[in-house]
Amino acid sequence: MLKLHGHKILCIDATHGTNAYDFQLLNVLVVDDFHHGYPVAHFISNKQDEKTLYYFFLAIKERCPDLQLTVIMTDDDYSGWNAITAVFGMEINHFLCKGHRHILQLQ
What we know:
The chain is of the alpha/beta class.
């Protein structure tokens, strides 16, 4: 699914503070031909800084070396964006997910 649909848009979202062990879950989804989100990768870690995420996205790139990203959607945490562009290059459009755009407008 990632190889088939990853060039359209890659959606990335993470949980924060949802368990007693302070682990975070990062989910990566693609949108299929029926406009449904389809999970293609998950990452559980006790931190999600740029260096840690770099190695996660590098592992994805190693498994899908021909993957060309054109659009990603993330929350407003730039560590993921910086890690992705370090692995896949700067020629990617970056969108904030709707929920986070709304929060940013309120601030």
